[in-house]
Amino acid sequence: MKKLERIALKHLTAILAVSVFILSGCVPTTSSPKKRSSSGGSTTNSAASVPATKGRIFLDNPVELSGNAEYPTENNFNTLLNLTRDLVYLTDAQTLTNPCDPLGSGLYVVTTCYNALPDRLQPPLVNNTKKWAYDANGAEFAQVNAFGHKKKMLDQWFSDQSSYVSAYSLLPDTSLKKDSSLTEQYFSNYSFWFGSATTLVTWANCDFSDNAFFSPAETALCFGRDSIDSKLWFAQDPTIMYHELGHGLTKIMLNTRNKMEGAGVIPYSSALGYRSYDEGGMISEGIADWFSFYVNGRSHFAEWALGRYLKQSRPLRESDASHTAAVSEADDSRLAYPDFLFYDPNFPESPFEDIHYAGQIVSHFLVALTEDLKQECSISESAAKKLTAGILHEALAELGDLTSKGTKAGKKGYINLVDNSDWAYEWLRAYNPINMRKFAQAMARKTYQIAGPGNVTFTQCTSYSKDRLERLWDSYGMLLFKTYNLNGSSHFDPGTLGAPASPAAAMGHIGSALAVSAANRLRTVLVDKSSVKMDPTVGAPPAFVFDDRAQLRAVANNLRQTNGVILSEQLDADLGFNNGNGRISPGEFVGIALNLYNSSNSTISGVQIIASDWQHVNNDGKLCNNQGDSFPASEAEGAAPAGDASCNLSPIFDAAGSNPNSNLDPVCVVQLNEENATRWAQQDELLASMDGLTENDCLGDDPKSCFLRSPKGADVGWMSSIDGQKNWSDSLPKDANGSVNIGGHQAVFFEVSPWISPGTTFLCRLRVRFSNCNDCYHDANYSNDDFLDNDYAMGKPFKVIDLQFTVVD
Amino acid sequence: MKKAIGFTILIIFVGVGLYFYQKNESSLALNDRALNLRNASIAHTQNMPSSLRKPASVEPTTDVTKKDSSQKRQWIGAKDDIIQSGKIAMKNKPDNNWHDKLVSILSRGINSKTKIEVNHEKSVVLVNGNDAVNAEQVVVIFNADKERNSYRAMVNSQTGKVIRTWDHTIHENTRMPASLSGLPLTLESQD
Question: How far is CA A460 from the centre of its chain?
Answer without folding.
Answer: 29
